[in-house]
Amino acid sequence: MSNTQETHAGEHQAFIKSPKQLITVVVLAFVVPVLVIILLVTYVSRSTSTAPGSNALTLEAIDARIAPVAGFELIEVSRSKEPLTGDVVYKQVCAACHDAGVAGAPKLGDKGQWAERLAQGAQVLFESALKGKNTMPAKGGAAHLSDYEIERAVVYMANASGGNLEEPAPPAGEGEGEAAPAAAAPTAAPAAAPAATAAKTSEQPATAAAAPQKTAAAIQISPEAATIGKKIYDTACFACHATGVANAPKIGDKQAWAPYIATGMDTMLQVAITGKGAMPPRGTAMQASDQELRLAIEYMIKDAL
Ligand code: HEC
Ligand code: HEC
């Protein structure tokens, strides 16, 4: 009796009774954690690379989330090199609405939706894209893009939707310099004319003729010009631009600014960044970003347009 009880007690106290069992336990003690780690690693790497269930971590989703930042970097870099092409601008900015037809935006490639708009002529389309139209925001909301880049996007969209627009002439002062638009304008009109419809032919020469003054008319004054722009002006630019020191164009002076405005905002900004003659680099506001300098310029010229 007592013997049996002892055996039972012994069994409860020691699971491992033979060397074979000991080996099994030792091996399991190693193998189980390793298996768990392998499973965890596979689980984690699978969910980041493919994730059939959740798309929170897919490359596309990440791209989409960082898009404004990445897009901006890209633009800053390319600004010093080459303007963006129409298809790139379209993908970065316009596709948000024009791919699916958000808020009644005419869809890319939908000839039916575009036909009437195309009949307005390139100039009207450019104006709508640059200044906005109803729910279509000015420049599609991408105020940092140049007029030229937006116009290229319009041409890309129009031509993918049954249109036959000419590439816009590059702005003065960029690339080939002042002579480029003057030389490009006359060639653009005849080239565009044969392909265009009757309605469009009447618009085309106007497009070419309007091109040189277009930059001046199309300069957008953003609301921040009155706040951020004014602040930069009051801390730096006023020193010369308030009274016209060293022939600096005076704030709001239409006549003084006209020749500068005619070169377009991008050229003015570029000159303000690098400096020119008595105009010091960044107008001495070394801490201001390019965008803030642009706002300061907008503030100075808003009453000179
Ligand atoms: C937030 C949405 C949105 C974005 C982004 C957007 N558009 Fe639009 N777009 C619209 C809407 C809505 C219309 C239709 C406006 C109307 O006719 O009332 C439109 C119309 C247009 C038209 C036709 C205008 C006309 O006169 O018929 C052009 C050209 C155009 N967009 C170009 C662009 C370009 C170029 C971009 C990118 C730089 C862009 N859009 C980005 C919403 C957008
Ligand atoms: C020390 C004086 C001085 C200060 C400070 C100054 N400017 Fe100027 N700026 C000038 C002069 C002089 C010119 C005319 C340059 C020329 O045409 O040769 C000029 C011209 C310009 C132009 C026209 C450039 C062009 O040729 O297209 C812009 C834009 C401009 N300034 C912006 C600014 C901004 C923005 C600030 C402040 C952040 C600023 N300036 C501060 C003296 C100054």
How would you sum up this structure in a few lines?
By secondary structure, the chain is an all-alpha fold.
Descriptive tags:
single chain; 305 residues; mainly alpha; Cytochrome Bc1 Complex, Chain D, domain 2; 2 domains; 13 helices; 62% helix; disordered N terminus; binds heme C
What is the topological layout?
Layout: H1 2-13, H2 19-49, H3 59-81, H4 86-98, H5 111-118, H6 122-131, H7 147-159, H8 179-192, H9 198-218, H10 228-241, H11 254-261, H12 265-274, H13 290-301
The structure holds heme C (2 copies).
One heme C binds next to helix 10, helix 12 and helix 13.
CATH uppermost class of the largest domain: Mainly Alpha
Distance from N terminus to C terminus (CA atoms, Å) equals 112 Å
Superfamily at the CATH H level of the largest domain?
Cytochrome c-like domain
What is the succession of H and E elements? HHHHHHHHHHHHH
Shape: elongated
Helicity range: 55-70%
Distinct ligand kinds: heme C
- Whole-number mean pLDDT: 77
Structural class: mainly alpha
Task: Work out the count of structural domains.
Answer: 2
The fold-level CATH name of the largest domain is Cytochrome Bc1 Complex, Chain D, domain 2
Tally of DSSP helical segments: 13
| Residues in β-strands, percent | under 5%
Question: How would you sum up the major sheet?
Answer: none
The CATH architecture of the largest domain would be Orthogonal Bundle
Q: How many β strands by DSSP? A: 0
Molecular structure report:
The chain has 305 residues and is an all-alpha fold. It has 2 domains: 153 residues, Cytochrome c-like domain (Cytochrome Bc1 Complex, Chain D, domain 2), CATH 1.10.760; 79 residues, Cytochrome c-like domain (Cytochrome Bc1 Complex, Chain D, domain 2, Orthogonal Bundle). Helix content is 62%, strand content 0%. It has 13 helices and no strands. The protein starts with a helix and ends with a helix. The structure holds heme C (2 copies). One heme C binds next to helix 4, helix 6 and helix 7.
